[in-house]
Amino acid sequence: MEALQETEEVQKTPDDAISLNISDSLDDVETDEAEKKASVASEELAFDWSSIDTSHLPSSYKTNSWQEKELLQLADHFFQQYTLLCPDRKPLFIHPVNECGVQKFVSTTVRPTLLPYPDMYYWSGCASFVCDYLIMEPLKCPITPPSSLYSPTTILKYQRGNCFDFTVLLCSLLIGAGYDAYCVHGYASLEMCSLDQTQELCPRLRKPPEVPEEEDPNKYRIKYPLEPQSKFELQQKAKEEKETEPAEEEEREEEVVMEVAKPKRDPLHGLRVHAWVLVLSGKRKVPETFFINPFTGNPHSTTDECFLGIESIWNHRNYWVNMQDCRKGCKDLSFDLSDSFCWEIMFSESNEPSQLPTESPKEDTDNMEKEEIDMSFEMPLSWVARIKVSGREYENPFSKGKKVILYDKAKLEKWAAYANGDGLVERLTVYADSDRTEELEVKEWFKHREDLLYMREVNKKTQLITDHFRPGHPLLLKAHSYTSLEPETGHTVEFYHTARVDGLWKRFENATEMTEYFVGREDFLHMRHTEFGEREKKMEQAGITAHANNPRPIVQIKEYFHRNPEKPADEDIEERVFMVIDDVIQLTYHLELHDTIASQVVFCRVIGREKREDEIFLSRENTVKYQPWSSEKHKNMLHLYNLLWELRAEQKELKQQVRDSEAEMLNILMVREDEEANIKLSVSVYSTTKRGQEHDARV
């Protein structure tokens, strides 16, 4: 049922008003529609459907069987009753002609098919394939359904169609995959009918819904008094608000200008015909009934305001007419098809007579009787040939090589797998303005790369590049952020720490420092920070080899540890600092619950005494500092002496670990530079087309 338009102030007779409103609306949009068609024609040559070759089509396309003829008679009888009982309703979309000019019932045009590809077993895969594979064609008249409905096989062959063609093909694939899907003939907004997504947010930019935090069920918790507020601060805030009032007025004026710049209201709002898919809950564990827009492949709630009304729905077994009020769109509609008050079924599935009465053709109105016609009927099989999609067509769904979708301040580009030498399949560009002139961020997605790179983010303002990798990289890379692949220019590398022995999950390095983060270590180490000095100027050279041959001097190494519950707090180290150049070692221990200042032990080099690696000079007054509440062990000079020996040995190991980390970073940069210079794509075992091309190349 069409969604009713807002009433006009001018009062006329109903028939005249409706006809005048529609004609005026058509006059208003005639120029806009012509401009849109001209723009579409400029982008691609208009396709002439009358010139297609139908000689090779099966006989079922060109003739009707006796079952189909009987079906058309019953459909005509149903349509006559419908027009008599509902004269104000628009004509139903029941039996349009096919590509051979033969009338076919819409339910027989649906051909349930399950394609032999893993993604086509799910509604999202079917929807994305249909919207990517087909080119959208607008309806010739925006307020009436088309006069023809071609078979899904023909639509797939020429890779184009209107919303009804999209819907029938998608519904055939969904029913074949086991979904309770239906084709819908109804009314939608201008943006949905014309595939205009420039006012919508790109799905790639939508944030997942936040899970609300559960409130504390304790009603008797202590309510603390509110924090006191300073009167002076309140006065200052009031002054600031007065000063900012002119700026707020300017912002309001800008908002008014923006509102003026918004597109005008569609004069055909509520009259534009559209077709989409309805998926009922139940089968395939679908939790909730939803719509699918075949042009975009996106799911929508049945309460979405873009859907303005429904005339009828059908699948491969039956046809239902909506008898509910659609003045509020589809928000309040019930989709219980067994409810005869909401949906009038054409062919009774339980051998019950139809609720629609028929009038006797006799002229004597006194003798008119309502007869109940048995509308139980077994739907004939679909006249459409088997739907086939080859591996080449499935892997390369874009007829133009790529697909470009414009969103609000964003542009999304899609390519088929192996279309680009670097494995690029999708690129999202985010802009600062609606005219899409100033780029803010670019995200790229890749497939089948041997280096397992699957996404790259580029910040156009800071030129920061972040590469994301799938598990399995030889260097166990998870992410790599950089501005240049040159060493010591600022690199942040994340690893799959569960595959590493040392538990390292993140490392940041630049010219002066390096910070490493650890997870799940037995020694409870969670961070290590290293500071470097400047290289000797005489030996400064460019390139990775020069950095390896001329290491930076280590100034200081800091390590941070989590609390070890098996040790007392005053014996469990929280922070350990090795000042390599100053020859100072500082230990800071964890706090007990009642402590405010942490216990510390500091080993310092004696002033005026030369440093020797094989000698330790320990003096209570000059080399050890501790808090009075430290452990008793720290007051024992022998314990401190042994501790200092251990720290000296660990300092040597730490310096070697830092050098190993530097070497690992240089190796990562060398490998990544080589991978980007020589990009290789792996051939999937499911890609029969690509494997065939490689076989032909070898032969």
Automatic annotation (TrEMBL):
Subcellular locations according to the entry: Cytoplasm, Cytoskeleton, Flagellum axoneme
UniProt keyword Protein biosynthesis present: no
GO biological process, one term: cell differentiation
Location, primary (coarse class): cytoplasm
Domain CEP76/DRC7 peptidase-like: 273-346
GO cellular component: motile cilium
Region: Disordered, residue numbers: 1-35, 233-256
Residue ranges annotated for the Dynein regulatory complex subunit 7 MORN domain, each copy included: 400-684
Protein keywords: Cell projection, Cilium, Coiled coil, Cytoplasm, Cytoskeleton, Differentiation, Flagellum, Spermatogenesis
Comp. bias regions, Basic and acidic residues: 234-245
Residue ranges with Acidic residues bias: 246-256
Family the entry assigns: Belongs to the DRC7 family.
Record protein name field: Dynein regulatory complex subunit 7
